[in-house]
Amino acid sequence: MAGLTKEQRAQREAEKLAAQNGAEQNPAQQEQQGIELVVMVRDFPEFPGGPLSAEVHPDEVDNWLALDWRLEE
Length: 73
Hints:
The protein has helices at 6-32, 61-66; strands at 38-41, 53-56, 70-71. The chain is α+β, with helices and mostly antiparallel strands. Residues 1-34 are annotated as: Disordered.
């Protein structure tokens, strides 16, 4: 099995970025569909430069609470 060429790696990176951009646009689409997102926060980022706030789908709140996030007051 051969390794990936530079072009194949670049293609995979482009696909990842496109998927991330699509995921970032998803919350706006959810709001347009009438889903009220929940704002959650944390005091310290999970990793350096990580987010301290997030808009979370109501079905996912329990998962985020388990990861040391809390509801915004």
